[in-house]
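Sample intake sheet
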Amino acid sequence: MQSSGGPQPGPGAPFAVTVQEREAAVVVHTSGELDASTVPRLRAIMRGVLSGAPAVLVVDLSGVTFLGSAGMHVLLEIQDLAGNTELRVVAEAHGTVKPLCLTRLVDVLDVYPTLAQALRPA
């Protein structure tokens, strides 16, 4: 598994996903635009990660420049598929926090402002 690093992508940046084991969690870092054209890729990766039944799964949206309705829907799908896996979402940028707040998904998803906070033991 690899880690992501480097500069944050700008608008229109290609969608990228990396999976990393960190502490007692699996972290899925996403960057670029999360919309109807990129959701199938994320969905497939998340199903693979969840097949390993990690105790904690962190979806890091820190690098996401656009979060469309399909992206928000896939977060709910992941939560439904998670079973006993604790799902945590990292959203810090206006482009991810605002849609999550407007749709009130912050009330149903466990959202953290930073990866460090999401990785803290519950």
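Comment: Strands lie at 16-22, 25-34, 56-67, 86-90, 111-112. Residues 13 and 32 are 5 Å apart (CA to CA).
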